[in-house]
Amino acid sequence: MAKSERRSDCPISMSLDIWGDKWTLLIVRDLMFEGKRTYGEFLSSEEGIATNILASRLKRLKDAGIITARTNPKNRSSEIYALSEKGIDLLPVLIETHLWAERYLPVSEEIRETLKAVKADKPGFIQALSERLRALPMEQ
After folding, report:
1. Would residue 2 count as lying in a domain?
2. What is the dihedral of CA 71, 22, 8, 96, to 10 degrees?
3. Domain around 19
4. Exposed, middle or buried by CB within 10 Å (0-12, 13-18, 19+), for 24?
5. Average pLDDT, stretch 52-64?
6. Strand 67-72 to strand 75-83: parallel, antiparallel, or no bridges (unpaired)?
7. According to the model, what pLDDT value does residue 88 have?
8. Do the domain assignments include residue 31?
9. Sign of the CA dihedral running 106, 98, 1, 131
10. Spatial distance between the Cα atoms of 39 and 50, rounded to a whole number of angstroms
C-alpha cells in the first residue's frame, strides 16, 4: 500500500486498513478454525454476511495476499480459498482476540474448552495449527 493510500504510518492503522472491518477477520476465522473453503460455506456462517460484502472482502483479502484462490476442480465456476503464509501469520492475533473475549464477554463452553488447550501451551497450539493450515490441500 503506497503512502498516499494509507491514513498514516502507524502499523495498527495500516493493518486495520486491510482487515479491520466487521467482516474480514470472520472470513479468516472461518478459514482458520472452521475449515470453510468456498464462497457458499462462508455464506452459511451464522453472522449472515451479504453476498456483495463477501465478494468484496474475499477480493480485498486476495489483493492483500492474505488468502489464495484456486479454481474448484469439482465446479470450475467456483473457487477454493486458503490462507497464505501471510494469512496464517494472523493466527496469534485471532488467538489473542479469543482470549480477550473469554475474559470480558460471554463465550460458549466449547470455546472455553478450546482456550484451555491454548492457555496450557500457546506456542505449541499456534505451531500445531499453523502446520495443519499449511498442510491443507487446495482441493476439497
Report:
1. no
2. -90
3. 10-135
4. buried
5. 95
6. antiparallel
7. 96
8. yes
9. negative
10. 11
